[in-house]
Write a structure and sequence with these properties.
Helices cover about 30% and strands about 15% of the residues. It has one domain: Beta-lactamase (3-Layer(aba) Sandwich). α7 crosses α8. The protein is globular and about 55 Å long. By secondary structure, the protein is of the alpha+beta class. The strands form three sheets. Strands 3-2-1-11-10-9-8 form a seven-stranded antiparallel β-sheet, with helices on both faces. A two-stranded antiparallel ribbon has the order 4-7. A two-stranded antiparallel ribbon has the order 5-6. The longest helix is centred in the first third of the chain and has 17 residues. The chain contains 13 helices and eleven strands.
């Protein structure tokens, strides 16, 4: 996984969602006003679509405006399928499954499909660590070396700097040897120690606290810290501290050897390898604004559904659904599981648009994006409107468009933001 593949660095991602110096930042039940069909009525396949069906009478007025715009963007980006949830109190909730969830048999997407949410996982890892802060078991300004002595420069790096991406530790997903190994062995079961070793063989990018750099290494480390403090593994920590408490009954942090998704699930697709993504990211970082994934008009993406998520660990391994992500989008912004002062610090965006494991998606909106092989997602909560958005596409990066415009869920979320939240 390149750093793009797990949740792109700010210097190569859409500035709309995270700002020039921050990472990408970054939903549902049968509520009144929702489109509650389990199976999407539209069956768009990569590069083509049928005419959208009329919205049900119960759908909010904005649904008729959003559906054709989203379908057109999906066709432009060759996205097989997407799940979209938009809940705006006073206007209604719209939950829709668009396009195809399995290209091999043309199965439509379902609104209850299980998907990989990528780096939205980071917001959850951060919540667990911040709970430990509230319990007095870790301090935000404790040195990382107190918990993981083997971290280079760990005596000078704080837990807070891991959370807000200012540690200076290089992302293991930028290591070329790591990407080659992951491409060659997509079923490999990675340990946290192996992921960290890929990062630690490189010098720091900058001294701690001096700059921002979105690094997946930070969140693998935070997962290791949480496991060492509690004596519990990540699947148990996520279940007991987050999912059970919030009623997120269809979310899980998979065991390292488990590359499956519970049924029903959407297949995930890619036009490019992790090594290719890393090269594209580095080209974009060097100023090549036209760098892109190339694919011939008739090419079909590879099915990468079972790419083992252990390569993402606490930085991006969680599986979830739209219903559960609606719950989580609100939790990111409101912090019901945290002390008020801790949540206040979490949402301190004064140094940029990234706080303690969450971002400012646009002014007044809290969220995070995620990206792993086969899936790209966005979760956003708009506090002043009490509005939730969750979008997931079963394609990680679109081909034949500039790389910074090729992240499908971000492109779809931008359309929603422009039409409903300007």
């Amino acid at each position: 996984m390149s750093s793009t593949a797990c949740s792109q660095r700010g210097r190569t991602s859409a500035a709309w969602l995270a700002g020039a110096t921050a990472a990408l930042v970054g939903l549902v039940s049968s509520a009144c006003g929702a489109d509650n069909s389990s199976v999407g009525s539209t069956t768009a396949v990569s590069g083509s679509s049928s005419s959208p069906s009329p919205e049900p009478e119960s759908a909010p007025e904005f649904a008729a405006q959003l559906r054709p715009a989203l379908m057109a963007k999906m066709e432009e980006l060759r996205v097989p399928g997407a799940i979209v949830l938009v809940d705006v109190p006073g206007q209604g909730q719209w939950l829709a499954a668009l396009g195809v969830g399995d290209l091999a048999v043309k199965t439509p997407m379902r609104t209850d499909d299980q998907v990989r949410i990528g780096s939205i996982t980071k917001t959850m890892t951060a919540s667990i660590v911040l709970q430990l802060v509230d319990e007095g078991r870790v301090g935000l300004d404790d040195p990382v070396a107190k918990f993981v002595p083997e971290v280079p420069n760990g005596a000078a790096i704080t837990v807070r700097q891991l959370l807000n991406m200012t540690s200076g530790l290089m992302s293991y997903t930028a290591d070329e040897a790591f990407n080659r190994e992951a491409d060659a062995h997509p079923d490999k079961v990675w340990t946290s120690a192996e992921l960290l070793a890929a990062a630690f063989r490189h010098p720091p990018v900058f001294p701690p606290g001096q700059q921002f750099d979105y690094s997946n290494t930070n969140y693998v480390l935070l997962g290791v810290i949480a496991e060492r403090i509690t004596g519990q593994d990540l699947p148990r920590l996520f279940k007991e501290r987050l999912f059970d408490r919030l009623g997120m009954t269809h979310s899980r942090f998979p065991a390292a050897a488990d590359a499956s998704l519970p049924r029903p699930y959407a297949h995930g697709y890619d036009f490019v390898t992790l090594t290719g993504l890393d090269q594209l990211e580095k080209a974009a970082a060097a100023g090549n604004t036209e760098t892109k994934v190339m694919a011939s008009p008739g090419a079909m993406p590879a099915d990468v559904t079972t790419f083992n998520p252990s390569f993402a660990s606490a930085a991006g391994a969680v599986i979830s659904t739209a219903a559960d992500m609606k719950i989580w989008a609100k939790e990111m912004a409101t912090g019901s599981l945290l002390e008020p002062d801790t949540q206040r610090q979490r949402l301190d965006f004064e140094a940029g648009r990234y706080g303690l494991g969450v971002g400012q998606s646009w002014p007044g909106a809290v969220g995070h994006a995620g990206s792993v092989p086969g899936y790209q997602s966005v979760a956003v909560y708009v506090p002043d409107k009490r509005a939730s958005i969750f979008v997931v596409a079963n394609l990680q990066v679109a081909p034949d468009v500039p790389f910074t415009e090729a992240l499908p869920a971000i492109a779809l979320t931008k359309l929603i933001q422009e039409r409903l939240f300007q």
